[in-house]
Amino acid sequence: MDLIINSHEGDIYLVNEQQHNSQRILCDSNHHPLRFASISSIKQHYQEQAIDKVWLVQHSAYDEMCGLQSANQPMKMPLSW
């Protein structure tokens, strides 16, 4: 399984699990996206599972805040797990 960690302002991390070209967001028992406060807490959540690749996706509103055209592509980088 691969993880795609989406980083948002305010120390909010949301996780998408990817298996066999299918993605789903990790949700709690009420079907709300499960929020993490750090990458360490995500690691702890998945410590018992086999993870193949982990990607960090950073969304930024900086360009829009400065009056520039929005950069459509977020920054995506692999993480050592």
From TrEMBL:
Domain of life: Bacteria
Pfam families recorded: DUF6482 (PF20090)
InterPro entries: DUF6482
Protein name (Swiss-Prot/TrEMBL): DUF6482 family protein
